[in-house]
Amino acid sequence: MSNQAQNHEFQEWWNKQRGFLDKPDSTAFLTVEISNPTTSDPTVDKGHTRSARQLSWLWLLKFQQLATSLAWLTNGSVYLLRTANRRIAASRTDSPSDSSASSRRLYRIIKLFLLLVILLLCFELAAYFKGWHFSPPSMESAEAAVERAYAKWLEIRAGYLAPPLQSLTNVCIVLFLIQSVDRVVLMLGCFWIKFRKLRPVAAVEYDGSENVEDYPMVLVQIPMCNEREVYQQSISACCVQDWPKERMLIQVLDDSDELDAQLLIKAEVQKWQQRGVHILYRHRLIRTGYKAGNLKSAMNCDYVRDYEFVAIFDADFQPGPDFLKKTIPYFKGKDDLALVQTRWAFVNKDENLLTRLQNINLSFHFEVEQQVNGVFINFFGFNGTAGVWRIKALEECGGWLERTTVEDMDIAVRAHLCGWKFIYLNDVKCLCELPESYEAYKKQQHRWHSGPMQLFRLCFADTLRAKVSFGKKANLIFLFFLLRKLILPFYSFTLFCIILPLSMFLPEAELPAWVVCYIPGLMSILNILPAPRSFPFIVPYLLFENTMSVTKFHAMISGLFRLGSSYEWVVTKKLGRSSEADLVAFAEKESDPLVETTNLHRSSSESGLDALNKMETTKKSGKKKRNRLYRKELALAMILLTAALRSLLSAQGIHFYFLLFQGISFLVVGLDLIGEQVS
């Protein structure tokens, strides 16, 4: 009975719907009428009422999303303003290394440029509101003095200022294209290596069945200076190398001038000596020549003549237990091989935005530059650590020299000119740590870009006189030094920090959009390919590289013209992120360690509890770290943002967005918001 009633109701509803759909003026054919016992007015269109309510809820949801976004932006802006206010109030501007005469001179030039740009913006704003941008006045038709002044400015701008700026722009564009072609060629070389599976082949392999006498004598050097956060990791990593103890000697070359650091390092060395490891502690009373002087002093020891190879590791590097077994075999049967360089692996690459961007740069350097140069021309710059040298090659090319701050590149260039060859192993990785603060990274980049220019001045004549082929000389001078060490920072700073904002005020000098956006974007994609997980950071990477151009340009000029700051050596501070647990996990992942080696390595965590307590106490009582303000970056941020305002008057879309985001990038870096934040 109930089923018949339900079917009857359904038939009545269906007939009603059919009649409604047959009406030609019906527009609500997709709505379904649902009976509502609470509604007493039969004239109300319930389908339309429901649609209106749904639209109301939809707009309410969108409004809530908009309010959430605005609240997030507001909170971010308030945090940014509070942080800037705190750092401005603290008056901590730049670092002591940035207070040199050359740095102050560059800052004064940037300030004058900023003043000029602001004056030009005021002048252009007045002309815009007068309507002169749409109908420029001429000297003949001008009546008022201001109008005649603007007409005269247009003549000077078009006849005298724009042509030299356009010439400089064209020169920078040509340099930019040449450097871009170099990047493309390097990437093609890397693709060819991957496609053909080209890699160096070792003549022998050490599997543990050899006699002890079959292992060559290896010297391991660990230079360090006041690096209490990382000394224990590097020493323990070298002491557990899977190499016969009687065929290996470890030198801990401590240049620390802090007594507590010396005591900690000496205690660590004594601990490993008691375990039967051949390890020595060396400390120089007079620290001359920085790292080069330290290595040179160690190589002058009488017992060094008994060793054939020397492996060098900085204080924050932890090689795997099979590092020597993976590198030494490549020297067998290759008497002209001087260096085997391995790749760096970073334990803190995901720590913050700064370390992620560094990882992109260094991944391209190792995966592309070092590998391509190693495979095709057997030469590349020694990275200063995580490499093994033939001691005979070091002695033949003059040993370590103290004349530059890039002693690693110096020794590599001299060995190359003497006819020695290099091998790069991309599949052998050595754990290390990236600088997490912008201050430490900036000091490191200044040294890395001023040193090559010092070396270029010193070895240019030697390169011309060297008894090597013309191709090697051309590669060393034009590619290794000029294109990748001088031209790159020059055009990057000049084009994007000087010419681009000036072209907004001198529109007669044109900078094409493909130079501003498309080609840099393509080059950024190529640079990021070796680190594919970093693709979400491609835009910050592009902006940050342009932001760093001011530091690299200043370093390049300082090294080229022998300014005071170019000879300053500042140790890159590390935080000790690569713990012993990280090292063990890395060793287990990359190789098949012996049980004895692993147990010995794990036992290293037992040592020095008292020493660690002393270290923590000293760290707490040391100088308090603070974030700083960087004046040059802040001044350039104001220049670029001012130019972005000027570009709005000319409706230059791509130029406006690039200047806006590049100015924000300079502002973030200038406020020291990109790296480690100290509360």
From TrEMBL:
GO terms for cellular component: Golgi membrane. It is a multi-pass membrane protein. Keywords: Cell wall biogenesis/degradation, Glycosyltransferase, Golgi apparatus, Membrane, Transferase, Transmembrane, Transmembrane helix. Residues 310-515 form the Glycosyltransferase 2-like domain. One of its GO terms (biological process) is plant organ development. It is found in: Golgi apparatus membrane. The chain crosses the membrane at residues 109-129, 168-193, 486-505, 629-648. SUPFAM superfamilies: Nucleotide-diphospho-sugar transferases. It comes from the Eukaryota. It holds the Pfam family Glyco_trans_2_3. One of its GO terms (molecular function) is glycosyltransferase activity. PANTHER family: GLUCOMANNAN 4-BETA-MANNOSYLTRANSFERASE 9 (PTHR32044), XYLOGLUCAN GLYCOSYLTRANSFERASE 6-RELATED (PTHR32044:SF67). Belongs to the glycosyltransferase 2 family. Plant cellulose synthase-like C subfamily. This is Glycosyltransferase 2-like domain-containing protein. It comes from Salix udensis.
